[in-house]
Amino acid sequence: MFSCFRGRLLALAALLLLASGCGGQKPTAASLPPLDVAAERYVRLALALGDRDTDSLDSYHGPPEWQADARARHAPLPEIRADATVLADSLAAARADASDDEVRRAFLVRQLRAIASRVDILPNDRINPLFYATVQATEEAIVNAMLAAETMTGADGLRVFALPHDRLMAAMRKYGRVK
Q1: Can you give the pTM of this predicted structure?
Q2: DSSP-derived secondary structure for 77-135
């Protein structure tokens, strides 16, 4: 009797496994291999970056709802960078068993690091004023040097003339450099 019950239980388990595989349902994150989950997270990060930087994503042909989610969420660049770095670090620390998985894992790590690097070179609200102030200070220093220059005679009688202040100021006004 026990062997009959055991046989029926095994047959039922096999039937359930077969039915779950043929159900036509989309796999969940828990049922996917870890690299598939990481690959989806990578695509979603690339979409999030593409929402912020149109030059970083040429085209997308995946599920439209992923792109809609990225647009609706409009993740900030520091968050995109942090998420890409954390995922890349976790994938870099884990080694895959199969050689195909290892190649795929290494590719994902490189792509995620590229996302983080792309965020690093994009303009942002905190650094742009610093660059602008640096440009202004440099321009001011150059103008001050030009205005402070005097006519000089150097070695072998070489003479360098100072710029006439009125002509320099007229040229700068003409090109909108001073008011």
Answers
A1: 0.54
A2: HHHHHHHHHHHHHHHHHS--SSHHHHHHHHHHHHHHHHHHHHHHHS--TTTHHHHHHHH
